[in-house]
Each structure stands twice: as C-alpha cells, then as structure tokens.
Amino acid sequence: MNVRRSAAVLAAATAVICAATAPAVAAGPSPSASPALPAGLYGSTDPTYDGVWRQSLALLAQHTVGVKPAAKAVDWLTGQQCANGAFAPYRAAPTTACDAKVMVDTNNTAAAVQALAALGGHDAATGKAVAWLKSVQNKDGGWGYTPGGASDTNSTSVVVGALAAVGNTPQDVRKGGKSPYDALSKLTLPCDGDGAGAFAFQPDKKNSLAANADATAAGVLGALGKGLVVEAGKDGATTTCASETVSPRQAAANGAAYLTKALAEDGHLKSALPGATDQPDYGNTADAVVALAAQGGAARAAKPLKWLQRNAAAWAEQSGPAAYSQLIFAAHATGADPRDFGGVDLVTRLNATGPAPETVAAKSSDDDAGDGSGSGGVWWMVGAGLTAGAGIGFLLSGRNKRRRP
Known about the structure:
mainly alpha; 2 strands; globular
C-alpha cells in the first residue's frame, strides 16, 4: 500500500521522480529540500507531490504504536481538505478555496481518511472525504488515481481501506451494480503462465495484463478488505493459486502465492529504472510483508521481514517519514518490535521527522534518530499513475511500469 515510498512524481505529463517507495526505489538521490516548510508537516523535502500522503502515513503509524501526534500535525492534514471532501497531494495556500486547477485524487484522499479515522474525532472530515470517493467511483466498481481515470489496483485498494476504516462494507459500495471487488477481479492474472496469480496495475493499451508486484501487494490487502495497518492473518492460510472462479479471498491467496515466489530467492523485490541495473525495492518489499502477513500469518512474511531488518535503515533515513511508517506497518503486521527493528528504533526516528508528539507510549533507547528528509513510500503511494487520457503520468517508484517475474 507505496503509497506508496518516497513518492515523488512529477504531475506534469510523463515525468517521474523515483526516490524511495515513492514511494520507494532503492537508494537514489535525495529530493531537494524545500526552503519554507509549513508548520506541522513531517519531512524536510518539497511536499508538492507527497505532502498529504507522507503526513497521513506518519500520523497513522504513530497512532499504531501508541504515539499521540502533535495537534498542529493533525491540523495541517485536516487543513488540506477541499470543501468537497477531497484531498490533493499538497495545497500551499489551504485557506484559498479549491478550484478546478487543484488536482485532487483518490489516493491522498483515501490515505487521509485512514489516518483521521484511526485518530478519531474527525467524523465530519472523513464523512465528506468518503462521500467524495463514492461520487467518483467508476462503473466497473473501482477507482483510478484521478476522478474519471481508468480503475487501477492500487487506487481501488487504498479506497477499500478507507471505506473499511469508517465502517463501510466495501462489497456494498457499488456503481452500476459493480463493487470494488468486481474491479479487482478484472485485474488479476490467471494461475497459468507468466505472473501466475498476480495483480496488474491496469490493462495496457492492448487490454493485456502484466504482473506487477507493487499492485499485487496492494491488491491482496484490497481483496481482503484491509487498509494500510493490518493484524496478522490466520497462520497457514492457503497461498495455492486457484484458477477456478476467483472470490476476493482466493484472489488474495493467489496474489500471496505470486509474492511468495517473487521473494523466494533474495527475500526482497527488485526495482529497475531505465538504463539502470535492478536494485532492491525496499518500499514494495515492506508492502509485500504486510500483504503476506495479512493473508497468511506472520510466519509467511518472515524472510522478507528479516531482509528489511538487516537492510532498510539507510533507505528509510534517506526517504523519510513515509518510509519509516511503512516499516512500522510491516513490524506491526508481523508482531515485530518497531522500536528495535534490526537495531533501529523506527518510532523515535519517525517522531524526529516532524513536530514533537504530545505523548509517546514507550521510551526509546535509540538516540541516533535520523531527520528523515523525504517521503518514503507505501504501495500504496499508492496510485501509480494518472491515465494517459488524463495527460499526466503519476508514478510512485515506477509502480505501474515495473514488471517483476
């Protein structure tokens, strides 16, 4: 769920900035620092493309580990909401009413809903946001990154998480008689051939589906009706790919089977940029840990979890609040200690990227907290792209262009 990963994407045409899981490409150059950051915002880089995303993940991760965020951090997020309930990635002038030039989207809106619903006391804001999300649901039951954009697995799944967070039953949220699960089922690959059991991000121009590990991690959670924060599922739940009529639960099992195979050799997923060699993809690996734990129990995610514990600290320090949050979600889903994650206190380091929390549930022993200057990614940066028809390419860590075996 990059979203989701260092998250930076040029909202203009086809330009893309891949920083860390954008949410999450393996260690790339740090984003440029912003000269004047708003009070209350997490991270120290330009929030233009990921401000709401990284703030939502940071607040949600803090709540998950018993930290009460600073009031001004929560106020910053609620202040980003437009009057119609939607959120854009960032509004530099939040007191100015949103107009047609403000590029609101489903991903940032759904992430904000999940964070504010967890914190509690924001029913008016989450109610308006969910009403807006329902108003832009596609006739196939899914959502695209932008209103009217073709449905994709990442966007549909993060919205499912938002619906569940406010107590809605995703199966009952329909447009044209179709639910989000109908949309997700159209984006699953069969159990034979390349990418068996995976989810695609979207069909290509020829209406073909290509396996995408980032979309698969998101799709597993969406098919299970889960959000970014999950408890470990029942140990031993099947991950056998079944090609008969696929229920949402079986689609999740099929996706978990694909992820298990993709992680089997190295314990991590890979990301490739044009002209570059394959590199470890920390953000999508963290998303895969969450998905596997949710579907089949913590033991199923043990290998990639250990890899993250050994290797992800430098990536998170470079990428910032969303990356630390993503690792906290992985620790929570598997029962690992986020305050001793491979020797790193993720909680202290996340807290250091923004205003001091009001309360902290437990003291940390890690005094070497990084300043987290960026925005990590969750699969969920979750929307990987605006459709070509919209004329904008939105790629978080190259989400919709990645093709993994």
